[in-house]
Amino acid sequence: MTATDPWIRRFFPSPEAPVQLVCLPHAGGSASFFRPVAQALNPRVEVLSVQYPGRQDRHNEPMIDTIDGLADHVSRAVTRTVDRPFALFGHSMGATLAFEVAVRLERAGRFAERVFVSGRRAPSCHRDERVHRRDDAGIIAELRGLSGTDQRIFGDEELMRMILPALRNDYRAVETYVWASDHLLRSPLTAMTGDDDPKASHDEVRAWSAHTVGDFEMKRYPGGHFFLIDHAPDVIGVIGERLARPVATPR
C-alpha cells in the first residue's frame, strides 16, 4: 500500500492502467474496505481508496461531520492525485459523497468517465433519519440490522469503543445532508441496489436518473444494504466492463 496523499490509499499501484477509480467508503468505513476491489481490478484499473480522518492510520485527526466538508477535502485530494481518466464509486454515505465530489470536479472542469453509486437513495430523496442521536446501544442495533459488520466485532468492547465515534460522526454527516444544488452531472451514472435494502427503495434509487444528463442505468441484486459483499464478483465485473467501454461525457 502507498499513501501519496493523506486522503488517498493505493493498495496495488498500477501506473500503466488507463483509468483510475476513486472509491469512497460507507459510514464508519475505511479505505481498506476496497482492498479486494483494488486487487480484482488491478492492473486494468488503478483503485484509489479514500481514507477519512478519524480512523485507522488517521485515527488521531479530527473527524469531519458534514458531507459538504468531506466533499471539499476529497475533491481537492482527487485533483492533486488523479493523473488520468477517472471514475468514482461510493457505497451508502460514500455514494452521496461521490455525487458531491463529482459536482465539485465538474464545476472545476474535470469530468468522471462514470459515477457508480451503491446502496443509497438519490440526493433529492430525503428521509428524516436520526441514528446519530441514539445512544451507543442504538447505533449498534442499527449496525446489526444492516448485516454488513462481522458479528465478532460486536463482542469486542474495546474495538467497539474505537469504532463508535467514527460511526456517529458519519451518520451525523449523511443524516444532516441537504441536497441544495441544481447541478446535473454530465457523467454517466450507474446506480446499484439490493432488493431488500431498508435504506433505499427501488424508486429512491431510480431517482438518481434525474441527477445526470448522461446515460443512466440501475443494477439490482438480491440482498440488503451490503449486497455488494455477497455479490462482489458481479459488482466488480460491472465496474470493470463499464470502464473498459468509456462513454463520451458531454462537456
TrEMBL record:
Start and end residues of each Thioesterase TesA-like domain: 22-239
PANTHER family: S-ACYL FATTY ACID SYNTHASE THIOESTERASE, MEDIUM CHAIN, THIOESTERASE
Assigned protein family: Belongs to the thioesterase family.
UniProt cross-references to SUPFAM superfamilies, sorted A to Z: alpha/beta-Hydrolases (SSF53474)
A GO molecular-function descriptor: hydrolase activity
Keyword set includes Cell inner membrane: no
Protein name: Alpha/beta fold hydrolase
